[in-house]
User: What shape does this take?
Amino acid sequence: MKKFLAVLLSMSLFLPITTVHAQTPVVVVIDPGHGGSELGAYVNYNDETYYEKDMNLKMATAMYNKLSQYDGIKVYMIRTDDSKVSLSSRIAYAKKMKANVLFSIHVNAKGSASKEDHGLFALISNGNYRSNLRDVAKGISDLALQYEAQTSGMVNNGDLLRNSGTTTYPNDTAADYYYIVRASVNANIPGFIMEHGFIDNDQDFAFLSNDDSLKAMGEADAQAVIDYYHLSLKGSTPVNESQNEEETSNEEATSDEETPVTLEAPTLKLKNVSKGLQLSWNAVEGATSYDLYRKVNKWVKYKNVKATSFLNSAVKNGQRYSYKIVARNESVTSDVSNIKSAAYLNRTKIKKASVKKRKVTLTWLKNSKASGYVVRYIKNGKTYTKTYKGKAKTKAKLSLKKGSYKFSVRCYINKSGKYYSVYSTAKSVKVK
Assistant: This one.
């Protein structure tokens, strides 16, 4: 998988692993990370390029093949070839298959912000919301880490947790940072990401560059699922078909009550208006409200609104603001929208417009925070503008031809970008 920040290393290596006996066929969805144009991590060695997406698929296939030999389990793969699959589609597929586990297979690469540069990791939920899902994910991932380490000789670095800096779960606790982990929780599925070593670490790569090694790693992951659920090889135990049919029927009967898998991230727009900063965004299907975040010096959760627009009138002249939003309903939150920024400027006003010998003189009110002003004039449907630099500049003289004009003025400010106020009320002038 791509670079990550190591936020918390758990003590999973020293805790007993809890396993369960499956009462119904367990549904395991295997997610080979990346695919298609999404290459994942990669490294060049001896004039050959090794891609994470290919390694992921080989491990996932080996895992699938081994699990398919067991009773009491249904196994699905999100991709079986070099296809690009969006993150939201991966979650939607796991939801459609009524997954009991979403096992996402990845390989890591070093990042400048990461202390670790080798070994195995499991990225699991923080447990802030639906902690029972974390318990299942941790139970399986702990076994997987143990078996992977035995198979590969790589270091078992345990579990890693990383919180989102802005997104929250429906209970207003910090959501998980990684989409697969967070969206799995929202979809009520125990989902986690297994990082099978670092592709750009020489020792790890020596193992990962061998197809037999990748097969062995995938089989180690399968063994973790087998041992967690106490599965038996096909033909070794009798199956109570009537019980399975009844339980499957019950599962289908309750599936309609489940909440939507994911919400699309809104697209945010922002503009200066006379009374503040106007925000608007598209309606997200399934969303009941939107969390609005605002930044002056740091990000804070500012408002929760049900509409698809918001006028932020509590703004100061000359101050720059940044915004982003998250769609939500009672069970699901979306990813964060795009970020929009603007500096608010009070609207100026034309004080006087006079004409003498085809020269128009305009004066306007000064805005102490402005970097300059733009004079706009319209004649016969055509618009012309002229920019005047300097906040002290409150007067303009223009030589114009005969005709009727409408003049207006707006301020601008240079503050990590160039931002404009709305135009003043127009002033009509006739040049003879």
Observations:
- The helical segments are 52-67, 87-96, 131-152, 179-186, 202-208, 211-229, 241-254.
- Confidence is low (pLDDT under 50) at residues 1-15, 238-260.
